[in-house]
Amino acid sequence: MKLHSVYGQLLFDRKLTASFKEVKANKGAGGIDGETIESYESNLEENIFDLLGRLRNKEYKPSPVRRVYIPKKDGKMRPLGIPTIEDRIVQQSLVNILQPKLEDTLFHNWSVGYRPNRGVKRALQIILWNIESGYNYIYDADIKGFFDNIPHKSLMRILKKYISDRTALGLIEQFLKVGYMEDGKVLDIESGTPQGGVISPLLANTYLNELDWELDLNGLRFVRYADDFLIFAKSKEEIQKAIAITKAKLKELGLEIAEGKTKVVNFKKDDFDFLGFTFQHWSIDKKGKPVFFVVPKEESIKDFRLKIKKKTPKKLTLDKVEWVNRVNPIIRGKINYYVLVIDAIKENMELGQKSHCVTRKIRRILESLDGYIRKRLRVAFMHKHPSQNKEYKMRYKWNNESSSLLSSYHVSGCISTKQTVQH
Description:
Elements: H1 13-26, H2 37-41, H3 44-56, E1 65-71, E2 77-82, H4 85-105, H5 120-132, E3 137-142, H6 146-149, H7 152-162, H8 166-177, E4 180-182, E5 185-187, H9 200-217, E6 221-225, E7 228-233, H10 236-252, E8 263-266, E9 272-274, E10 277-284, E11 290-296, H11 298-311, H12 320-338, H13 340-350, E12 357-358, H14 360-381, H15 388-394, H16 400-403, E13 409-412, E14 415-418
C-alpha cells in the first residue's frame, strides 16, 4: 500500500469546516494562542479560508502545544499536549484522509483501541474467545512510557513505507517536532507524540502495527488497546516464546516493556485486569461445572461512587429534575461500560462460542450501586437540614422505584436487555 496526493486532499474549505465540527464535538480547551472553539467559530468562514490559503501556499506552520498535567490513578501526573484549535483542525483533516485507508489495508483486526467500529467490547470478545478456547497462559504487558518514547526517526521511517506524499510527511514531522510550551518557555522534544493531539492515536497505532503483524506472523493470538496488550498461549513454553518475540520487536522499535506493570498469568489460578475489568480465574461451581467471572475493577467502582458523591453534596439545594440532570450522565456512562462484557458474551455466543462466564456478580454490583445512588438522592432531595437520620425516616415515603436513576439491566446468564432510565 502506498498513499499518494494526501496533502492535496486537505485543500478544500468544506473538508476543513467538517474537521472543525469534529473538533468542536470533542470539546477541549484552547492552545497557546488563547483561541477557543467559541472564538474561532464566531468568525469561522474567514478563519477557514485564511487557514486554507496558508495551506495552499505551504505557509502553514504548527504551533507548540500547551503542556498541562492531569492526575493518574497511581497518584502521578500525566502530561498532556493541547494543540491550538487551528492545529487540531489540520490534524483532524489528516486523520480523516489517512485513517480509512489504513483501516482497510493495514491495521490488524486484533488492534482495537482508538479505531472506528472497535473498542472495549471488541477487546472483551477477543479475550473471552481465547480464554474459552484454552489459551489460558496470558502475557499481560504494558509498554514503558509509550507515547513519550516513540522515536521520531523510526516513526517517520514506518510512515514512509505507506505514504509517498513528501509534503504530508513533512507536515506530520512538524507536528512531532513542534515542541511544547510550559511556564512561558518553548521546549523541544526528540521523541514521542503528545497525548492530547488529534493525530497521536493514529500515529501510535501505525507504529505498533509493526508489533501486531510480528505477533501474527509467529502464530500468536493477542489483543491490543493502544499500548496495553495481552498475548495468549496454551502452555508456559509458548508464552515464554511469545515474550521473547515481543521484547525483540519492541527493542527494534526503540521501546521496552514496563516490567513493573507486566506479568505472566496462568488463568487457571491467577486473575488479571484489563480495560477496567477484573477477570477472575477458572473455578468450579456448585454443580461441578467450570466457570469464571468478569467484574468491574474495585478502583472503577470506587471512582463511580466518588463521582456520584461529588455530584450530590448535602448542602446544595436543587429541585429533583436538576439532581437528575447532574447524576444521569455519570450513571449512563459507567453502567453502559460495565455491561459491555455481557454484550460481548452474547455476541460471541451468536458466533458459536459456548460461554462459561457467569455474570451474576455484575448484577449484584449494579444493585449495590443503585442502592447507593438512591441513598445519596434521598438525602439530596431534602432541601432543609439534610441528614442521614432524616434520610432513613424518608426511605419509605419515597419508594425505591420513584428515585432510582440507574440505567437498569436484566442480567441473566449472558443476556442483557436495556431499559429506559427511570426518573
